[in-house]
Amino acid sequence: MVVHVKKRQIVLPGEILAEGNKFKSGEGTFREGDKILATVIGLAEIREDSVVVVPLEGVYMPKPGDTVIGKIVNVKLTSWDVDILAPYLATLSPMNVSGKPVDPVKTDLRRIYDIGDLIVAKILAFDRTQPPVLTMKEKNLRKLEGGRLVRMAPTKIPRLIGRRGSMINMIKKKTECQIVIGQNGLIWVSGSSPESEELVVKAIRQIEKEAHTTGLTDRIRELISQKT
Amino acid sequence: MNSGSKYSREELLKNGIRVDGRGARELRPIKLEVGVLSRADGSAYIEQGNNKILVAVYGPRELHPKHLARPDTAILQCVYRMATFSVEERKNPAPSRRELELSKVIKGALAPAIFLKNFPRSTIDVYIQVLQADGGTRCASITAASLALADAGVPMRDLVTACAVGKVNGQLVLDPNDVEDKLGEADMPVAVMPRKRFITLLQMDGRMTKEEFIEAYKMAIDGCMEIYKLQRQALIERYMAVRKESEEEEEEGGDENA
Q1: Domain boundaries of chain B, sorted by first residue
Q2: Contact yes or no for B157 and A14 at CB 8 A
Q3: ipTM (interface predicted TM)
């Protein structure tokens, strides 16, 4: 068993990470014979039983259980199409909104969600043979009104959340803004004043830029404290 | 710049020195830059001698029109285009047969490297814009496109590197430029996935003997290996730059309103 990379080393597609059969090939890697290689640019990480590459770039790929922010782009007879900035349009059916089927003759789905509405939803299922299915049947999943929407690279979302939410909770507390994070890279911010919203946007931009540095939470805290 | 009529065939190679002062086995100077366009998911820029080429990659993204979608895999779409000002005599802006063919050939050279099966029913789009052409644009395009794909975070088995070998006055020359290509006896572009030396493109026009072909092939692979190093360097530099940049404090934040 040979490991060829250091922890958090930048690796490129096709780079050999490890040899031997001790490790499983995790996310961002593939196996070729007894070698594990990187498929994307990212930071190599050796876990207990697997080797993974945390990608630095890439589009959002839906994963069941992810919270996402989406925009209604089409209202069909019995479902909505939702753009979640993934390679696939997601579908949302009334069954997964209210828990009961809706009679398309009696109800116009437009009166529940119309084109252009923003929603926070959870990905219920996605298996690549069918478009991702969304659900709204959980606490805090709802239509978003007011506020502002910020887009960020989905690969950098974990940094915005921080270890067990340390970063985002600090930002929420200090700015007194409501913030909803979609794993797909959309962030909804709503505060009592435009200034506080602006401050959150600024913090998000800085996190995006400095995503791969240490001590980021402290610097963001400083940034926010200066302005309030 | 280099009009064919300016040189005679005999002048192309004198005492082993080529028209642009290179030796027979020397590449043109190459400059590679990654992440040059902010709108695209991934992008790259290459200068190889007088070639200047810009590549933008989008995706994997939703595919329109839907009937092109494949249920088991993503499709790769390549568009190779030359600017009207990229060549000496104005290029007609209408898509030409040659551009269509090169788009197809480049697609074939890149596709084996990409894990297209990871993204069924979607598309990955590669747009190649030649700003200035001086021979060997298909190879330079492939080299740059694979960097742009890597920059977009598209999963790949390896980068793809390409390089041509020409034959001028009976002598094999690496990375021929436009004059050498036009006045020479043969031109052979090769694209390769360098790690396993897996060939993804091998074309040839003109004539070579079997021995020449074998030698030309070896030269092309050597050239590709050299370019591969530059490609890796360009990618690593880009992401090291991201790291450095991020160490500088206080940046102006933009805003994006919903």
Answers
A1: 20-240
A2: yes
A3: 0.88
